[in-house]
Amino acid sequence: QVQVVESGGGLVQTGGSLRLSCIASGLRFGDLAMAWFRQAPGKEREGVSCISWSGASKYYADSVKGRFTISRDNAKNTLYLEMNSLKPEDTAMYYCAADDSLTAIGRGTLSPDNYKYWGQGTQVTVSS
Questions:
Q1: For position 115, what pLDDT does the model report?
Q2: Could you tell me what percent of the chain has a pLDDT over 90?
Q3: What is the mean pLDDT of the segment spanning 41-64?
Q4: Which one of 27, 91, 107, 109 is at 20 to 30 Å from 99 when CA atoms are compared?
């Protein structure tokens, strides 16, 4: 059984930073393409960033490019999202997602439909 668990959310002021973590178990972590999504109240779930199984390929939504950094440590079965220069519009529930069949990473793979396994989410709130 695959389990995906996020952590690291919280309340931060505008301009602040947070680092989210996600641990995936039940499959070989090194075989998984991983991604971060977010969903604000009343809005659709949107892709934030994704990363290939090796970490060599990364893709970011335009809204977070230059502020957020995705990374992974396959030895620790952990995915990270370093978020800097946070804005109130970054406030959302952040979800970690994984898939064991994606072979490439890019704009087309930053869609919820591409990922089989999901965590429960961690809340990020940015105060103005």
A1: 96
A2: 91
A3: 95
A4: 91
Q: What is the total residue count of the chain?
A: 128
What b/e string do you get for 3-40 counting C-beta neighbours within 10 Å, with b at 16 or more? ebebebbeebeeeeebebbbbbeebebeebbbbbbbee
Average pLDDT over residues 106-120: 92
The amino acid at residue 74 is: N
pLDDT at 14: 98
Once rounded to an integer, what is the mean pLDDT over residues 9-27? 97
Mean of the pLDDT values across residues 64-74?
Answer: 98
CA distance linking residue 57 with residue 24, whole number of Å: 19
Asked whether the predicted pLDDT for residue 66 surpasses 90, the reply is yes
91, 85 contact by CB (below 8 A): no
Upper half-sphere CA count for residue 5 (Cβ side, 13 Å): 6
**Token couple for 64:** 């977070």
Distance between CA atoms of residues 16 and 56, nearest Å: 27
What residues contact 12, with CB distance under 8 A and at least 6 apart?
18, 86, 124, 125, 126, 127
β-pair partners for 117: 98
